[in-house]
Amino acid sequence: QTVYQKDYAAPDYLVETVELSFDLDPDLTRVVSRLKIRSNHDRAGGVRPLVLDGEELTLVSLKLDGVELEPYRYQAGEGTLTVNDPPESFVLEVTTEISPKANTALSGLYASGPMLCTQCEAEGFRRITYFTDRPDVMAVYTVTLRADKSSCPVLLANGNLVEKGDLPDGRHFATWHDPFKKPSYLFAVVAGDLAHIPGSFTTMSGRQVNLEIYVEEKNRGKCDHALRSLIEAMRWDEEQFGREYDLDTYMVVAVDDFNMGAMENKGLNVFNSRYVLASPETATDDDYQAIEEVIGHEYFHNWTGNRITCRDWFQLSLKEGLTIFRDQEFSADMQSRPVKRIADVRLLRSSQFPEDAGPLAHPVRPDSYVEINNFYSMTVYHKGGEVIRMLQTLLGREAFRAGMDLYFERHDGQAVRVDEFVQAMADAGKRDLSQFMRWYNQSGTPVLTVSDDFEPASGVYTLTVTQSCPPTPGQPEKEPFHIPLAMGLLDRQGRELPLQLEGEKSPGATTRVLELRQETQSFRFTGVGSKPVPSLLRNFSAPVKLVYPYSEDDLTLLMTSDSDPFVRWEAGQVQAVQLIMGLVREIQAERAPAVPETFIRSFATLLTDKRQDRAFLAEALTLPTESYLAEQMEVIDPAAIREARELVRTTVGERLREELVAAREACAPKSPYHPDDGLAGCRRLKNLCLSYLMAPGSREAVGMAMEQFRGADNMTDSLGALATLAGCDCPERDEALEAFYRKWRDDRGVIDKWFSLQATSRLPQTLDRVLELLEHPDFDIRNPNRVRSLVGAFSQANQVRFHDAEGRGYRFLGDQILRLNGINPQIAARMLTPFSRWRRFDAGRQELMKKELERILAEPDLARDVYELAAKSL
Ligand code: ARG
Ligand code: ZN
């Protein structure tokens, strides 16, 4: 069942053209596929059979060069259709029937509300028709859709519309042609009664592109931001990478039932509606930001993914890591670059580092898989994005851009490996990147242990860096990585020193990228007057953990004086981690923990600093998450972490009441909300202040929250208030939640928020409430967003309640995974993540979590997706 990278072989047959015709109907859709096929192997050594992939298909007819194949010429097996002894080149016509409505896995052609749509990545096309469903088989597609005209007035497929017209019996048709060769995973069709929001973009060469966003009629008014983001993305890719769009039309369709975020199908993106729809009343600043990011991401795939695609699925990061990097850079240019970088690092550390440290750790380019959908992971996407960023850091922006140009020039129209990408970078940058390739092949998060030495007599300051990487599944030993370590030196007054490495002529810049290649390396800086404070890993130049024995004073100096915003933020986070972990130890030893005065004072200093950017300040004043704190513990103690972190929040809320109120008032809105008013940082800070004020649970604070909740003209403020109320043991809590539900019951996206607020409440009775919500008429196990908002939110974002010592949280999750297994295996598998961390907990919790994994594995009809993750986790 396991697929290995080393077993890759070129396809035996290639498909040149695909002509598809669909008689669309939610209950029974008939698909006729005419494939022009040509042999791709040396037939002198024997003619190989043609093996097509197919799942959940009813085969109706099979013709070769127009003649119905006799049964002995083919076999329909488990997941395949084999045609024996085919000629050198031929036309195969396959007719199959499928049932979109019964397709609850949401892979292939399925129904979402009133419409039909497809999701083919990674292996969904084989659920539509028999095909060589692998990315290195690229073909030109022509697609005809036929459907009932009144229920499906809109018929869309990839490429350009070539013809449309009416048919008898109230039906109609549309024919689409995509001139670009593409792998089957980029195929898409959509049919339904959809409103269409038009826009247009003129490319750098002066071509006009029609932009079309398709949504259900009721959502017509919620598309402006997506459209604007698309235009920004198109312009940005031209300016930053010289990449122009290549078809006459770019379509985006929003669907409510979607397994992932969105899909980059050629010319016809299909999106989870949460990444399209927004209005000030229903979407938060974060939602607006996420839409911009995902719209950008899918658009950027047109070049990094579609024009140049992956040879096989082991190369997934070739397109995903690179496109994540591109969307991060896009967002950084649209918003605040430092704040975006901090958010990206937070995400990497809270989700990818734990993955890399657990039983599901895998390299950015995995060696094997059972189910490829399980490898659409934080590692492949986000660590993969960091790997690209490191290339840019090592080569410098200019050479990196030249490398990108070379990559496009060499490989446009091809399906390639990661190696081809890195080779283009190596050639453009004139660098040897062979050691760098280890980032793709070795899993685990490297640790950099740094020590230093200052010799006052000679003025030499020496930094010694040792790298190591813990063992991960299948990789007990690691070879050293090639790591860019960006750094600077500060004197005690916080001034940046010009950096002069021994043996170099003149002092250089104040930031340098040291290149680590060996296990231990020393760097000697000359002309240093007094012992400096090292500012390390500027801009988080590598996805590593850094160990250096900073003193309190060092951290304060970096926090207030370093030129690098990431380092300033990080210094504060390190202080907060040290503080909270100290409190955790006190709590565990049953001593009375107390928050030291120094912490309160430095918090106050930051809070009242008028010069700082509000958004940055909000990041700096946000304590590390419970899950990040958990990562710092040998044996995770969820209750103690919760208590310690809450103690800090309560103390800040009590001691700095006036400062918090003032900071909050300074951020009070002066004009009606607009998502692009540049005040998102202000709103974040304001809501953060409110949450600190609410921590001690005073009546006064509850009053402020209720006032904000009632008066808000936008979802950011409304939800900010409701979130703190949801965690408060006060009568207003239910009142507010109830009012919110009544107001928004017809808006799916908002009701998702309503579910997750309750699921992530730290109140002791949360699990009981979650069980009640499972029975709520608006809970729908078939809708992935709803599952994520309740089951996912509770188990992944409510550590203290999920890790209930009696194991009730675990049993709940086990039950839901088993339920989802038969409905939507991809979503079931996604829900398993919390169980994969079982080794990090105490013996009692370990037993309880293992029991759930065993219970899941005992299920007789376990989907491959769930089986792989559960088995590897145990
Ligand atoms: N390529 C899409 C994106 O990142 C993700 C689609 C993955 N879908 C899946 N079912 N594995 O933009
Ligand atoms: Zn992607």
TrEMBL record:
Zinc recorded as keyword: yes
Gene3D superfamilies for the chain: 2.60.40.1840, 3.30.2010.30, Neutral Protease Domain 2 (1.10.390.10), Peptidase M1, alanyl aminopeptidase, C-terminal domain (1.25.50.10), tricorn interacting facor f3 domain (2.60.40.1730)
UniProt xrefs under SUPFAM superfamilies: Leukotriene A4 hydrolase N-terminal domain, Metalloproteases ('zincins'), catalytic domain
Catalytic activity: Release of an N-terminal amino acid, Xaa-|-Yaa- from a peptide, amide or arylamide. Xaa is preferably Ala, but may be most amino acids including Pro (slow action). When a terminal hydrophobic residue is followed by a prolyl residue, the two may be released as an intact Xaa-Pro dipeptide
Record key words, sorted: Aminopeptidase, Hydrolase, Metal-binding, Metalloprotease, Protease, Zinc
Domain named Peptidase M1 alanyl aminopeptidase C-terminal: residues: 553-874
Domain (Aminopeptidase N-like N-terminal): residue spans on this chain: 30-186
Gene Ontology MF, one: alanyl aminopeptidase activity
Biological-process GO terms, alphabetical: proteolysis
Lyase is among the record's keywords: no
All residue ranges annotated as the Peptidase M1 membrane alanine aminopeptidase domain in the record: 226-439
Cofactor requirement: Zn(2+)
Source domain of life: Bacteria
InterPro entries: Aminopeptidase_N-like_N, Aminopeptidase_N-like_N_sf, PepN_Ig-like_sf, Peptidase_M1, Peptidase_M1_dom, Peptidase_M1_pepN, Peptidase_M1_pepN_C, Peptidase_M1_pepN_C_sf
Matching PANTHER family: PUROMYCIN-SENSITIVE AMINOPEPTIDASE
Protein task: Aminopeptidase N is involved in the degradation of intracellular peptides generated by protein breakdown during normal growth as well as in response to nutrient starvation.
This protein's name: Aminopeptidase N
The organism of origin for this protein: Citrifermentans bremense
